[in-house]
Records
---
Amino acid sequence: MIRGPPAAPVGPHRRTHTDRRANTARTPPDNPAATAALLVADELESVETRLGEVLSSREPRMTEIADHLISAGGKRVRPMVTLLGFRACGGSVAIDAVDVAVALELIHSASLLHDDIIDENDTRRGRASARSKYGIAHTLVAGDFLFSRAFQICGRFDAEQINWAAEACIALTEGEIMQSRFRNNPEVTLDDYLEIVYRKTASLFEQGARISAALARPQDPSWVDAIANCARHVGLTFQIVDDVLDMTADESDLGKPVGLDIREGNPSLPIVLAIAEDRELADLFAAESLSDGEVGAVLARIRRSGVIEDCQRLAIEHARAAQQALAPLPDTAYRDSLCALIEQLITRVA
Amino acid sequence: MIRGPPAAPVGPHRRTHTDRRANTARTPPDNPAATAALLVADELESVETRLGEVLSSREPRMTEIADHLISAGGKRVRPMVTLLGFRACGGSVAIDAVDVAVALELIHSASLLHDDIIDENDTRRGRASARSKYGIAHTLVAGDFLFSRAFQICGRFDAEQINWAAEACIALTEGEIMQSRFRNNPEVTLDDYLEIVYRKTASLFEQGARISAALARPQDPSWVDAIANCARHVGLTFQIVDDVLDMTADESDLGKPVGLDIREGNPSLPIVLAIAEDRELADLFAAESLSDGEVGAVLARIRRSGVIEDCQRLAIEHARAAQQALAPLPDTAYRDSLCALIEQLITRVA
C-alpha cells in the first residue's frame, strides 16, 4: 500500500524529516508499523522526549511511578494514529500534533494507573503494576498528576478542542462505571459491550485524532470527521483484538495472566457472545469467583464455541470501516501508512 | 467594615443583583459571612445550579456519588473568595467568575474523594464518606469524573489561565506525596509544613482567585497578583485553623473524629510545633499506630504545651497578610466583605 515518499515537505521541521528518512543508515522497514514509525520518526521521538519532560515533578517518587508505567513501553498506538492522522490532513507544524499525542498518552496512562487500583491488578506490561509496587495511595496520586499534566498541555488548544479532550475523559469514567454494572452480569448485550468499549477506549482515540486533525487545518474541513471516525473504529478494533488475545495468547506475549476477563467477570466480547448462546457459561460468568480449574474450563469452552472467529470477523469489520473512513483524504504515504497500521492490528488475531 | 452599597452596577446581570439586594424581604445579615453571601447571592446561587448541572452523568451512580459529597455542603469558602475577588476587581460578567468558582469546587471535591481513599476515611462532612458508602473503585472514578468536568469548564479560559488551574492541580498531587514523606516523620519542619499546605490547600485558593481576578479585567493589572496573594494567605489561614480545630473542637462540630491528625500521623501545625520541643512527643508521632489512650494523652500534652496559642498567632498573621494584600484595591463593599470574611475565619479558633 505504500506508494512512495510523502508529498513535498513544508517548513524547516519537515525538511529535517525528509533528511532523516533519506538517511540510508536507517534499517529499511520490515513491517507496516515500522514504516509508519519511520514516516513520523521525529515526531515519535519528540513524543518520548516531551513525555520524559512532563513526567518530571518536584517529588521524585511521582516521577518514578509515572516512569515505571510509561517507560515500560506500551505500543504507542495512540500517538502513531494521532501523528499520521495529522500528517494525512496536511498538517505541517508537528509540535501541535506531538502535544496532542503526549496529552493522549498521559490521559491513557493515568487511566491505566487508576484501572490497576480498580481491578486490583498485580501486573501490567509484563512487570509489577504500580499499585503492587508503590501502593494504592501513591498510584492514585500519580494518576491524578498525569491527568493534570495532560490538562496543562491541552490548555493551549482552542476551547472546542479542549472540550473534545474533556469529553473523552468523561467518557472514560462513565465507561468504567458502566462496565462495573455489567461485571458478572449475564444480561450484558453486544450493544452494551460496544458502548462500554466506545467510552473506555474508542472515545480517546477518536477525540485525540479529531483534535490533531483540526490542528492540521485541513484543506477540506470534513477530513476532521473522517479521521475521528477512522480513529474510533481503530479503538474498537484495538479493544476487540485485546479481548481475543486475553483468551488465546500466551501469558509471556500478553505481559499479564491469560483469562483475566473471566477471572474478573469483565464482559469482554468473547464472553458476551458466548454467554448469549450457552446458559451454563452465563451462570459461570455470574459467579463472583471461579477456581483456576473453572477458569480453564470456561476458557476451553469459549475457545471451542466458535465465538473467537466471530470476534475476529468483528475486528476485521471495524478495521475495514476505519480504513474506508480515510477514503476522502488525499492519497499520501501518511494515509497509506495509517491503513497499513490498521491492517496490522488485525493480524495479531488473524 | 461594610461601608455601604457596592459601586454602580454594570450590565443587565448586575442590575438584577441590585434588585435582589434591594429586596427588603431579605433578612438583614447577622454576620460577615452572611453579608458576603448576600453581596454575591445570585452568583452563589448560580454556582449551586451549575454544580447541579455538571454533576449529571449518563451513569446515575456517578451523579449519586458526586452529589453525596457536594450536597453535604462544605463551607463554599473557595467560591465565596473567588466571587468577591472578581467583584472587588471590578468584574461585571458574573458568569465568568461563576465558572471559575464551579471549577474550583469540582477540583476540590475530586481531591476530597481521592483523599478519602488515600486516608481511608470513613466519615466526611458529618456523614459516611463516599469511600465507605460506595467503595474504592467507584469513589476513585467519581473523583476523576469531577476533575474531568472541571477540565471541561476551564476549556473556555485563556491558555495562561488554564495553566494556572493545571498548576494548582499538579501542586495538589505533589502536596499529597510530600505529606506522605512526612507522615509519622518527626524530622518535619515548619517550612516543610508550610510547603505542604501551600501545595495541598493554598495553591488552589490562589490560582482560582488569580483566574477570576484576571477574568475581571481589572483597571490596574497588579490587582490580579494582589487578589492571588490574598487568596494564598486565606488558604494558609484556613488550613491552620482546620489543624487547630482537629485538636480542640467537639466531634459533633467537626463532622469527623477529633485527633485524626495524630491517629494518621499527619504533620499538622500543632504537631509540627509541639514535637520540635518535646522528644517524647516526637517518638509518639513516629509510632505507626497509637492506642486510643495514647492518642488522648498526646492530645492533652499538645493542648497543655502552648503550641495551640502559637498556631492561633500564625493563623492571625496569615489572615492579616491576606487583608493587607487587598490594600491596593479600590474601597468597595466587596473588598470590605472579603476582609470581614477573612476576619471570621480566625474567630473559629480565637
---
Amino acid sequence: MRQFKATLAYDGTDFHGWQIQPDHPTVQGALKQVLETIECGPVDVQGAGRTDAGVHALGQVASFSLVNPIPEENLVKAVNRLLLKTVRVLAINSVSPDFHARYSATGKLYEYRIQRDEICSPFDGRYAYHHPYPLDEAAMIEAAAAFEGRQDFRSLAASGGDEVESTVRTIFSSTLHREREGEAERLIYRVRGDGFLYHMVRNIVGTLLDVGRGRLAAEDIPKMLARRERAAAGGTAPARGLFLVRVEYGPAADTTHTTTTP
Amino acid sequence: MRQFKATLAYDGTDFHGWQIQPDHPTVQGALKQVLETIECGPVDVQGAGRTDAGVHALGQVASFSLVNPIPEENLVKAVNRLLLKTVRVLAINSVSPDFHARYSATGKLYEYRIQRDEICSPFDGRYAYHHPYPLDEAAMIEAAAAFEGRQDFRSLAASGGDEVESTVRTIFSSTLHREREGEAERLIYRVRGDGFLYHMVRNIVGTLLDVGRGRLAAEDIPKMLARRERAAAGGTAPARGLFLVRVEYGPAADTTHTTTTP
C-alpha cells in the first residue's frame, strides 16, 4: 500500500464541483473512477478543497492509496489517458502514509478574475466574471488588505455551508491588482490563507465589488466582519471567475517519501 | 437600408461551423437569428470565410444590411446581449452598399496552435492540437516557407469541398515558430494569403507534421504540390487548433461609409 499526492488542474465549467455526487459529473468522482479502473478495486480519494460547481483549479491536491505496483511516472500517463480532457493530473508523488490532502494542508492560494473590458472575449467567458461597469478600483485595492490577519470570518461564510466549530481563519495576504493580457483588462484578486470557509473567497469578492460600487467603504470592512452575520457582507461572486491556484503543505508533508513495499 | 460590416470572435467548440445548417447550431445561424430579432424581418448574413466545425475566430467578418435605424454604437450592445456568450461581436461599422464580407476580402490570416507539452492544460485543450511526441521542428520551420508564393494548391484541397474553377492561390507569408506562454510550449503556424481552399490550412499543418515526423522532406514540398492530388499531401490537422485571425480588405472597402437615409 503506497500513499500518493496528486496535483490536478481542471476546467470546472462542466462539473458539479469537486465533491462526489450521485448522478452528477464531479472531479472527485471522475478521478476516483479512473483510479479504481487502474487499481481494479475501491480507492478512497481525498481532496484538499471542495471547489464549488464551476470553480476551476490550477493546482488542486488529492490524496489516495494504491496497492497496484504501477511506477509513479507511468501513473500520471495512465490516469490522464483515462480522464476527461477537462481534468489533467500534473504530477503524482509518493508521500508519507499519514499524508492527507485536506488535513495536512497548511495553506491555500485562490485567484479571482474580473474581466473589465466592455466586450468579454468568448475565450475568457468561462474563466472570468465579466463586469464592464464602473468600479472604484482604488477603493477596492485598499479594501482587499482589510481581510488580512487572524479574524473571525463568519460574515463571509455561506449560511448553507458545513457546520464548523470555529469561523476564525488566518489570511496571510489579500491583494487586488489590475492586469493586462493581450487585449484583455482584468482585475485579479489573490488571497492566501490557512483555510477558507464555504463560499468565503466568492463572498470577499462580492464585498469588494460592493466597495467598488460605492455601497460600502473600505474602512467599514472591520465593522462588517465584527457583525458576524452573512447579511453584513456583499453578495457571492459567480463561480466561473474563481481558481484554486495551489495548496501548500509543511516541508515534511511535501517531500517525496521512499515507499516500502508492504 | 444601410450595409454593415461586423467583426466577430467565437469559440468554435460547440458550433457546427460558420455556415448555416438546419437543426445544428452554427455561427452564421446564431448571428442571423439575432439580427432578424433586431430587424423584425429577414436578414441575409454573409461571412468572409466558412470556418469548419470546431474552428475558432478572433476576427471573422460578416456583412448584412438593415432597415432598422438603430445607431451603430447601440447595435454592438444589442447584438451581444442576444447572442450566445461563445460568440462576440467586436465591432460593427457602416460600409459602402457594395461591400461583401467574402467578395470584397483581399486577404486572410489564419493561425494554427500545436501544444507541445507532455500534459495539455485543461484550459488549452479546446484551443490547440496536443502533440507531445517528437518532431523535427527545424525541418518544419524550413518547410513552412515552401508554401509561400502564387502556386496551385490542389494537393491541399479537400476532395469533398466546393467545386472551384481554379486551385491557384497566393500565399503572402507562411511561418512556423515556437512560443512560450506561461507554462505552455507551443508551435504557432501563421499563414496569410489572398484566399484558401477548403481544409487548406489544416492540410498544410498535416503536411508540416509529416515533415516533423520525417515522413516527408522539406525540399519535397514543391514536388508534392506539383502532383496536384490530395493523396500527395499529409492528413488534415484537427479543427480545434485553427483560428481565423483576421480578414483583410482593400482600403476603400474598409473605411466607414456615410450612410444616406433611404
